[in-house]
Amino acid sequence: MLKEERQHAILNEVELHNRVLLTDLAEKLDVSIDTVRRDVKELDADHLLVKVHGGAVSLGFANHSPTRGNVYALDKKMTIAKKAIKLLRDNSVVLIDGGTTCLELARLLPTNLKLTCFTLSLPVAMELVGKPNVDTIFIGGALSKDSQMAVGSNTILTLSQIKVDYSFIGTGYVDAEFGLTEFDWDVVQTKKAIISASKKTVLLCISEKLNSQHRFKTCDLNFINTMVTELEPWDEKLEGFKKMNIQLL
User: Fold this and answer.
1) Which of 75, 90, 131, 219 would staple 223 via disulfide (CB 3.0–4.6 Å)?
2) Is residue 68 part of a domain?
């Protein structure tokens, strides 16, 4: 594989999953970690991604620009957010997770919609405070520099003390049989706590993440009430999910 092809593949993985590990990239591309590390360093120097310890994050995930020009598949994520908004009713109590799709949901909330909204994402919280009819409650904890989200024991403790009508979450990977997975153990524990704090959980997921999995399991798919993608519910790409006990939007 040529260097240009390799770096293009790295960018695709980073943009799709927001955060990736060097070890995973090396395995996927069948090259050494040193080769991937050099590629990531060059891509960081070219301002195409952000190099972090042991991996890389996408520009849209690490740098939340008002123009949103660096958000991968923005049109698809906007479609997902618009679908998800239809689930909301006045005076609901909800929780919005972090990530670029959840941030689009926060951005597109109608200004006349009355909500109480919890979030552990600093970018989402900053977006919500501009909504005149949304009471925003930030769930604190140790703030991740990569994702600008609260994580850790304090965050999980706070989540154990609330029960929201809906939570809207993202995921790095989702498979009809294996469920939701991530590569980060701390993220998994936080998402588990979010699901436990929710009467209903809504997964926001672009279709490119379907039928993928990683090492740490968040939950089986039956813990999710609704999955929202940019696809129509009858799309053949959702065939494996149609037999599961889950609403598709």
Assistant:
1) 219
2) no
**Is 69 part of any domain?**
no
Q: 192 in helix, strand or coil? A: helix
Q: Are residues 203 and 132 in the same domain?
A: yes
Collect contacts of 34-37 with beta carbons under 8 A, ≥24 apart. Answer: 35/6, 36/10
* Residues 123, 13 share a domain: no
Query: What residues make up the domain containing 232?
Result: 74-248
11 and 39 in a single domain? The answer is: yes
**Chain centroid offset of residue 153 CA:** 20
Are 112 and 87 in contact by the 8 Å Cβ rule? The answer is no
Q: What is the pTM of this model?
A: 0.88
- pLDDT, mean of each 10-residue run, the chain (249 residues): 86 85 88 91 89 84 61 92 96 95 95 96 94 96 85 94 97 94 91 97 96 93 96 93 91
Instruction: Provide the angle, in degrees to the nearest 10, between the axes of the packed helices 3-17 and 22-29.
Output: 130
The SS3 call for residue 214 is coil
Q: Is 232 among the domain residues?
A: yes
Report CA Rg, the chain. Answer: 18
- Using the CB atoms, write b or e for 211-241: b if 16+ within 10 Å: eebbebebbebebbbbbbbbbeeeeeebeeb
